[in-house]
Amino acid sequence: MKLVYCVAFSIIIAFNIKAQVVYPIALDSIVNPSLELSMSEGGWEIVGNKSSLSTGSSSNPVPVDGTNCLRISDTAGSLRQALNTVHRGHRYRVSAWVYSHGTLGVNDLGVDSLYEVSTSQGLSWKKISVEFVSTGSPALFYAKYGPATGKSYFDVFEAADISTAQDSIQNAPEIKIKFPSQIINLSNWKITLPINSAQEIYNPTLYDFSIDPWFKVVQDKDGWAVQFRANHGGATTSGSSNPRSELREMLPNYRYRDSKSAIAWSNTLGTHTMWIKQKVTHLTYVKPHTVVGQIHDASNDVAVFRVEGLNGGTTGTGGTVGVLDTLAKLWITDADITHGYLVDSLYRIGTLFTVKFIAHDGVIEFEYNGKRLPYKKTKNVSGCFFKLGDYTQSNSGTAPNEVDSAYAEAYVYDYTVTHETLTGTETNNEKTSPTQIVLEQNYPNPFNPTTTIKYSIPTAGNVVLKVFDMLGNEVATLVCEEKSAGNYSIDFNAGRLSSGIYFYSLRSGNFTETRKLLLLK
Q: Which residues contact 408 (CB under 8 A, 6 or more apart)?
C-alpha cells in the first residue's frame, strides 16, 4: 500500500510541475523586515551617520505593518541588509513600502553597477521594487534618502525569487571576483583579525569586507581561495595570546552582535560536521605552528587540526630556527594533548588537502583527504562551535625570539558545515519541536554533487520526498515512509545527473510544497 502511495504521488507531482511552476518564491533571509526590533537587533547595518537614521513607533505616518518604521532625515546615512542565499542566473525582486520619498537599491557584489529605484509621491505609502539577475554573488539591499526633501520613511521589506522555468544561468551578468564572500559562504560567521585591537567583523559587513593581507581573495593553480593571515605580535582577543585571522560559527541569519548570536551545539544530539579544502602557505620562524580548523567550546579547544613545522631548535627535527619550513607535520590536537594523533608526517607547505570533523553520539571522528582516520575522541561535549581560517600559535609568550613580521598563512578554497538531527533541532542547547510543516531550501545551492534538504513535520504521518527534472520526470525518491513528528535532514547526491535545474517536492497529508535546486558541475 505504501508503494502505491508513492507512485501515485510521483504522477501527481510530475503533472503539476509540467503544468505550472509557482513563483515568486519568498526568501527567508530578511531579518526584521518590518523593523519591529531595534536596528542593533534586527540584522540591519547602518552605513554612514547613525544620527540620521532611527526606527520606532510612529503615528504620522502610521506604519504599513506593526508599529515601527524607518526614518531617514538626510543623505548622511543609509540602512542595509544581505540577501541569503542567491543563485547565479536567478531573477530577484526586492521591495519596500516608502512614505513621501526614498530610494531602494541592490548591490550585487559580483558587478560594479547598482540597481536602484526612487519614488517621490508625497504624503502616502507606495510600494517600490528593484529587480536584478544575480551573478551568484552575495547581494546587499539598502534604503536611503531622496530624491525629495523632508524625512524618508520605509517599512515592510520583502525579497522573492521571481525566476521562470525558462531562466538559465546563461542570463547572468559576467561575475567579477573581489570579495571573500564570493568564494566561501560567510552567512553564519564572524571574523576576528590580528589588527585594530583584534578587530571583529560581523554580518552583513562581512559580505563586502576584504583587507590585505589578513583576509582577501587569491587565485593560484588550485583555483580561487580566501587568504587568512595571522602575524606574530598581532592583536589578540581577550583571554588569548595567539593572533588569528579566523572565522567563528554563528547562528544562521544571526541578528545580534553579542553572545546571543553565538551557536552552541552538542555531540550528544545530532551529527555535526565541518569539511575544509585548504592549504598552508606559510609558517612563522621560531615556533611554526598554525591551526587549520577546530571545534571549540566556551572555554577551550575540543579538537584541532594543527600544522607544525620542523623548526624550534630541537635536535633531529630537520629544521633550522629562522629558516622557513618546507615540510611539516599535521597533527590532531585532542584538547590538552598537543600531539593526539599524527595525521601526516611529511606535509609539504603549499600542498592542497582536506580535513573533516564528524561529531556525533558522544564521539568526534576525523577524515583527511577523504579517508576516515583510525583515531577518534570519545567524550560528551556541549556549547560547541566550529572555527576555520588561520590561528597562529606563535606569540611573545611561547616564542620570545620571534620577529613581529613573521606570520602564518592558509588558503581556504571551500568548506561545508552541517548540523543534522532526526529527533529535534538544537539551537543554543535548546530542543525545539516543529509546530508546522516546513520544507527548507536546500543548502548549498547551487551544489556539486551533494546538497542537504531539511524538512519538519509536527505530527506523525506518511512522508514522500522526491526529486524531478525540468520535464517532471522523477529522478530520485529520497523519502517514502511513515515518519514521527520532528525535524529531518537528508543528503541528496546528484553525482549521476547532469547540470541543470531540478525540483524537489514534499508531501505529507494534504500538504505539498515544491522547491527548486540547481546542480552545477
A: 229, 230, 280, 282, 283, 284, 288, 289, 290, 390, 392, 394
Domains, in order of start, for the chain: 2-21+433-519 (2.60.40.1930), 25-163 (2.60.120.260), 193-252+262-420 (2.60.120.200)
CA 487 centroid distance within chain: 20
Q: Which residue has the cell 542565499?
A: 85
Each residue's pLDDT tens digit, 429-481: 234 567 778 898 988 888 888 888 998 888 887 788 989 887 777 788 888 77
Q: What's the grid cell of residue 470?
A: 525540468
Under 8 Å CB-to-CB from 430, ≥6 apart: which residues?
A: none
The region that residue 42 occupies, defined by phi over 0 for left and psi between -120 and 50 for alpha, beta otherwise, is alpha
- The two most distant CA atoms of the chain are separated, in Å, by 81
- Decide if 392 contacts 242 (C-beta within 8 A): yes
108 close to 115: Cβ distance less than 8 angstroms: yes
Task: Calculate the alpha carbon distances from 101 to 59, 159, 174, 286 in Å.
Answer: 18, 20, 33, 61
